[in-house]
Amino acid sequence: MTSPTTHVRQPQRITTSQPMVEGAGVHLHRGFGFGETGPFDPFLLFDDFRNEDPQRYANGFPWHPHRGIETITYVLAGTVDHADSLGNRGQLAAGDIQWMTAGSGIMHQEMPHGDAAGRMHGFQLWANLPAKHKMTRPRYQDISAKDVPTVVDDDGTSVRVLCGDFWGERGPVEGVAADPRYLDISLPPNTSRSIPIETTRHAFAYVFAGSVRFKDASDPRDVRVEDPMNHGQSLAEFAGNRSLVLFDQGDSIRVESGEEGGRFLLVSGEPIKEPVAWRGPIVMNTQAELQQAWRELKDGSFIKP
User: Fold this and answer.
1) How many other CB atoms sit within 10 Å of the CB of residue 18?
2) How far apart are CA 106 and CA 274, in angstroms?
3) What whole-number distance in Å separates Cα of residue 103 and Cα of residue 299?
4) What is the pLDDT of residue 2?
5) What pLDDT shows up at residue 1?
6) Shortest CA distance to 277 belongs to which of 107, 106, 129, 99?
7) CB 141: neighbour CB atoms within 10 A?
8) What is the DSSP secondary-structure string of 112-159?
9) Can you tell me the mean pLDDT for 283-298?
10) Considering the entire predicted model, what is its pTM?
């Protein structure tokens, strides 16, 4: 039974990720980004790059800059070759994670390749850096799939812990400014779970397989779905593939899977609560800082010694 002192978070809104084309012609779906930043603070952008047609992703993301943020890439199928202006090179395979702190500035490229069936699937999340870390030295954390702990409960619920603490395990990504928790959760069919989340954090979930419903059994209110295809109907049933769920405040969520089970990412982090000046891949605190960054990119002084 839920404790009287427990407040279960409700979905504040549910949206469907929208198709976008980025890089040199990569077709992906964006859950959020390039809009309001407050509700998702400290996170800025979330992309689902999933495709089975190499022509729609093979040209990848050629050389481009970043400053003032951290980018988190999580690969589920296929591979991603990466290189940067610091001389780092490598490849991310299925289950691998790359957490890149762009800091003062870095140039890099990401080139995706499909698996034997041509499938490419992964996610990229942008986390903001607070002002005191905006110009820190760039660094990488490349994590192999074998180093990501997976915990399985008695009911078959499986959780990969990418970052943060959960069920006695700690994810391998460390030292991130937003102190996030990043979980990949798989629920068996018709399973209900309660998952704790610190009350001070902002949190969202992204459903990418099966279907799940987030609601408190004692408060079965519907949630408005912001999807132009359903004409603003209320969500009384389950959220399916490519549903982005933004939660209100509380100390836990309650989730229930549908007949086919469900798989979703659950991400939370401490809000930074600082002004955001953002243009493309560069995120600063003021317009003056942003303009300076773009001037440095133009005159060749963007990469710091």
Assistant:
1) 14
2) 23
3) 19
4) 45
5) 42
6) 129
7) 17
8) EE--TTS-EEEEEEEEE--GGGTTSPPEEEEE-GGGS-EEE-TTS-EE
9) 97
10) 0.91
